[in-house]
Amino acid sequence: MASSYQMRASTSAASASKWEYDVFLSFRGEDTRNNFTDHLYDKLQWRGIKAFRDDPELERERFGADLTKVQQWRDALKKVADLAGWTSNNDRYETLLIKEIVEALWKKVHPTFASSESESLDNLVGIDSKLMAIEFLLETKASDVCFIGIWGMGGIGKTTLARLVYQKISHHFEVGIFLAKVGQTSATRGLDQLQEQLICQILNEKNFPVWNVDYGRSMTKRCLFNKKVLLVLDDVDQLDQLENLAGGKDWFGSGSIVIVTTRDQRLLVSHGIEKRYKCKGLNQCEARQLFNWYAFKKDHPEEGYRELSESILDYARGLPLALKILGSFLYKRDRGGWESAVAKLKKAPIDQKLFEVLRISYDGLDEMSQQVFLDVVCFLKGNDKERVIEILDSIFGFDTRVMINVLIEKSLLTSFDNCVDMHDLIREMGLEIVRLESKAEPGQRSRLWLRDDIFCVLKENVGTEAIRSITLCLPKLSELTWNPNAFFKMSKLKFLKMDNLVLCQGPKYLPDSIRVLEWTLYPSKSLPPNFQPVEIIEIILHHSNINQLWDGIKYLEKLTLINLSYSENLIMTPDFTGIQNLERLVLEGCTNLVDIHPSITSLRRLKVLNLKNCRSIKSLPSELEMDSLEIIDLSGCSKVNIFPQFVARMEKLSGLSFSGIGTQNFKVSGHSVSPVLAYLKHFFLKGLHLNACNSVSPHPLSLVLASLKHFCSLKRLNLNDCKLGEGAIPDDIGCLSSLEDLDLSVNDFVSLPATINLLYKLKCLNLVDCKRLEQLPDLPLFSGTCYVAADNCISLEKLPDPPAMCRLWKLSFNFINCCSIAIEDEKFSSSGERCRFKPYFNRIACEYEVIKDDDQVDGVSSGSEDDGEEGDIEDDGVSSYIIYSMLQRFLQEPPPYFERFGIVIPGNKIPAWFRNQSVGASVRIVETDCSSCRSTLWVGFALCVLFGPKEDPGALGEDPDLRHHANTISCSWSPVRLVPAGFIYSLNKVVKSDHLCLFLLPLKYYLPEYGDSDGTSIDFSFKADPCLKVKKCGIRPLYKQDVKELNSRMNHRNKSISARKRYHTVQEPPLSDEVFSSLFRGNDIPVWFTNTSEGSSVRQMIPCSSCSGKWMSIGFVVCVLFGAAALGEDHDLEPHANRIFLYWLSGRSDRSSYLCDVDQVELSDQLCVLFVPMNKVILHSDRFVTFFARTRGAACLKVKRCGVRTLYMQDVIEHSPTMNYWPERVSRWDRIPDLLQQLKSTSHRD
User: Fold this and answer.
1) Were 735 and a residue from 265, 514, 559, 709 both cysteine, which residue would form a disulfide, CB within 3.0 to 4.6 Å?
2) Taking a C-beta distance cutoff of 8 angstroms, is the pair 412, 422 a contact?
3) Residue 1056: CB partners within 8 Å, gap ≥ 6?
4) How many beta carbons lie within 10 A of that of residue 674, not counting itself?
């Protein structure tokens, strides 16, 4: 049922004048001032409506002897009295008439109240989406009593939201009551005082004594009964407050609404409040807007304060209270004051007012819960929830799961993706509580986390038994000279974490009370011999100096994890006899580990065995009895030739990786390799990783592939870089009915088995860097998520039909640098010819064609601007055709819910279907018909972005890895209705040319305000990371009926292409190994060379490696401007041969060169033009080739300037219009023709 309570934050009602009275009471006929009118006046006063009644004494008191003013009032009141009103007669009860009048007047005067009260709520930000959510919760039958709970952390805006809802809808109720700070008032004045306040407001009495809580409960219920009430109980913190102020639905009259705000979700659940709304913080855009208003009193920061403002925003993390407090504090302060405030926040980052507000939730906890909270704050924040519970259980000796859940319900902790976390300001509040334990002496605090405090304790040996945890996470390596006995006094230390700390020597003592020991770069060769931590559960010593963890047997029954990853000095494992409950043994990267202690076979509870890249291990135990094993990783154990025999059934084994293990004479405990598969096929493997396999034959990989049908429980299959050629992947791959993740990247096959479309549970298909792959088979019916990556598949020419999208909520198709899919959409030649493409679906293929402008195909013109949409069809290329196909497939059966669909393909033109296009990185769309906004036909938005690499290579920085991590496109929009207000799309690979990115966004990200009929606009903006540039973007709202237009476009295009009668295919030019040159007269680099530089070197971007055949880039043309050097007074120009020496680098060490003879040195400048074929340039991911020109022979020549241009097939066609093919033999590249018409007569630059 639609809610009758319509709420919008941005009301259009103008502020009312400040009238002294709301209503004038008048009557005619019999004088009713002492009966009916008096009763009506009393009821209006009770309802909160200020009424003026005709009273001579009142007039005399007000105006005194001013008879003129009195007369003016009499005249005005006479006019008002003549207005129509209500008629009282004897056929109805006066009480009913009074009620009717009061309700009618209340509805008329309420907008005045709302407007006046809302002045205190000016500049609300991000409130619209919250109001819409509450309005949705209010959707109930008019006769129902509705309880709604609003919960969230302190300062998040619960009270503001509840007060605004109250102001918007209170005029619909007989009684509206807002009880503020219920928890605080109850604690300081008592619950009975709250009951008294509530009853007084119901009865409109100044005083109504409540003797005790039970009496107040009874009277509250009696007063509320049969009344339509709006009751807001703000900041409730105890269940008894709800029980005694709003016991149940039977307390209230029909149509009543009770709104409760609290920090504790459990209170709402316990009281049976089913409709609950979690109040969340502001997004970045909203937070910036709110802060700017309080700090600058406008919507943008002052010049020079933007960076400081961003620091404050990072600190506040969307918490409205923090933004208001800090913004108000910084208002009108100079830059020095701002800098001081920011520095203070970094050093002691909690404002006192904010601290007091947030601490209320902490103070409401029992002592044990407080300790759990502080342990999470100082040590366990961000960890997996099950790990947190396991560690806390070992400390407190009981199940702490309930406590963690209570802290989550009280908004002190959060749980996202099964990780325990918290708002940054909640954490700062917890840290401040610990700091207050001892302001001057860090060693007296229970927990340490600051670098200086920890360094002080370790250097001065001032630690005490008060210290419970030490957490030191340094951003970079730091050295410390310390006291090795610093831990001696810390007898109650439970958590010890040290990261990036370099110590001159190891500890002589560690407390036995430690539960978690996590120490990167641990300096000693072993743990202290007297260290007997019988309660320890985790030992994590990454990159340590350990060569043997301990000597002999240690009985540590609670130890579940040993992680010594990348401890390169480790040569042997400990004796496992005394640690029978070990569940995870991680020795990855221990390259000198030789011996595995035989007692490992007795670890019956071991779940994870990770020996990855332990390349010195030669053998493993012949038999393993660990029937709890779930994951085994032996990849990179290159000297292991014998695979252990599993004695137990191993029913839980789900992941196995043995890529890169020894392949010569591979056996299983004396048997040949075949038995590996004979018993592996009986396991319920969920993950099989065989990546980076060597090509030694026979290799177990070939046998595994031949037996894929036995691995029907596999969920993940990794065959990355396994040298798989055409036909290596069998049709049996379609039998992997449980497969979700398939990685076939960096292999050499040309096609994939058609049976891949039988993988109905597949979610991720990785084909990156399969450079010989030419086509994809039909894709399976993805469900849920769909991720297909085929970046750098430079031979890929054919794509399948897009998959059905009705069952998807997230889709990502990446075809970055797949140049064979779509050539440049259109190139014009000087002879009036243009290049077209020939696309096909099912399958997309491309052929270059040359078509005369005046050609017509069965009456179908080539299109013009006046052709409307059909003309646009002709202007669209292959990339547009792919995008149309995706849109068509999407609209044929849109998914009921989706998050985001995205596809990236090569292309340099946004399709004409996107009517709203804008140069640059932002675009605006205006919706004038908001009735259509709420139409069920509106699905969402389609956005198209044209982007490419930045022309300036310096923008990439010196770090080559930056290019592989900085390729992302982010999108944001405003105004914001619901979060999120943006997203980031990762491209993962270096982008070498222009690409198009299509995004499909759901309508839920932008919902028009209720009742907005004046039209609205939405601004979308895009941002690319350093190596990319957004060139253009387009947008169009998606409606279901758009599928008809898309069908028309595609049908028209297919018809025009199939009907085309004549075309001339330009063949691929034969490759030439020949570099040649030619000399010209000239005193400057011709304008034809698009890239020039002063001096003797010039740099040019390399087209992708398939461009020689697909984009028709056939090489480079380099132009060197040189002249005679000064030879002294005699000007004796030596007649013997001089040379221009050209060499080029396309990698860090790849160098090629060429010598150009200059037979005669002239006084005037000359040009040396060199033609370098593409196959002379070693193609690297560096993307650039640098040409250097030097002089050889006598010092007669001087290089002055250089230019370069990539030579495309189109350049050749342009200068030889009659040339439709290349000769079978190329001599000097057939002189390119006529040296590009003598370099266009060597036209010079202005």
Assistant:
1) 709
2) yes
3) 857, 860, 873, 874
4) 11
